[in-house]
Predict the structure.
Amino acid sequence: MKLASLSEQAMQLNRQDPLSGFRDRFHIPQREAKEVVYFTGNSLGLMPKNVPAYVNRELNDWATFGVEGHFQSKHPWLSYHELFPSLLAPIVGALDSEIVVMNQLTVNLHLLMVSFYRPTSSRHKILCEGRAFSSDQYAMESQVCFHGFDPQRSIVEIFPREGESYIRKQDLIEAIRLHGEELALVLLGGVNYYTGQLFDLREITREGQAHGAVVGFDLAHAAGNVSLQLHDWGVDFATWCSYKYLNSGPGGVSGVFIHERHHLSDLPRFEGWWGYRKADRFQMNKGFIPIPTAEAWQLSNAPVLSMAAHHAALSVFQEAGMDRLHAKRKQLSELMVAGLVELQALHSGKFEVLTPMEMSERGCQTSLYFSTGGKSVHTELEKAGFICDWREPGVIRLAPVPLYNLFSEVTDFICCLDKILKA
């Protein structure tokens, strides 16, 4: 039986896995003294074991130095945010000067739209994917209203075709061309949170900019998951959270990418003292003089304790290497999809895979849709020790990630789902 051969394949992949030791760097949740199978790194990544050391170092420096910790701590708080660009650059494919870590994702999305959504009476539309994450929808709607436009007219949503589960690339491209003269902004989730579809960000950027639009991405489900080359693709801006695939803790700080061609432009932005030229920042003068990098978009000084957890997590990424992470991610995903395709054949009509079959169109996440009974299936999976994600009206999201998931956990899940569906 094919499921048995997949299990054998998984055990072989476990033995050959060059990243196998990294699992021990994370706290795996337990139930009844047994580790769960954790497939929700797309919602909240697991805690790296080095986080307490990084956070406690800053707490100890706070206790030791007080305010002087801004200058005397091992990583001075005054410049703490400067630790991150070199660590994030390989993850998102950017120059160090194009990255700044600050705030949280939706705050950053609003700040970026202040600069990059500049609607006019003739060019005011935002193009996005249908069923974008709700916070993105609210941000777009409120920005459109703030500028005096009607979201019903100014927000163009692209949905899958009737009877299909994900958006065809050609439909996105044709929509950009159709609305091109009215498009102010193309703003997509790099990976759709619901279906797990990875969009062709390079082609979308090229097409959007060719029609006079600014192109930006919410990379909450892409950063630390899929291969990104934001600088080379010419993306105008992007933002992401750090608590999903980047494992930096609940509500962790967000990252921002702004292409270097915009650093010295006359774009408007909301401004604060941490974006002011560093040499003169503490003179407290009127008249904003920006740092000539993405740091100019900062408003406030660094939230060091939250950033310490982020620093700890990114040190693990640096050691693992993005090439090895992407290679294992593809193997995990291929194994998951192969097993689910087998189950679909065995249990016809019980569920469908929403995520594209093409590897180039997906990352870690695979989404299953159950027209009926999905919630009870999810409940049974949780009882069996599989932590996966439920989204209404009938979707179970699965995201085995390369830093801490085993190949055998994927096939164990397939076998468990097979038993539940038989029952």
Q: What stands out?
A: The mean pLDDT is 97. Residues 373 and 394 are 8 Å apart (CA to CA).
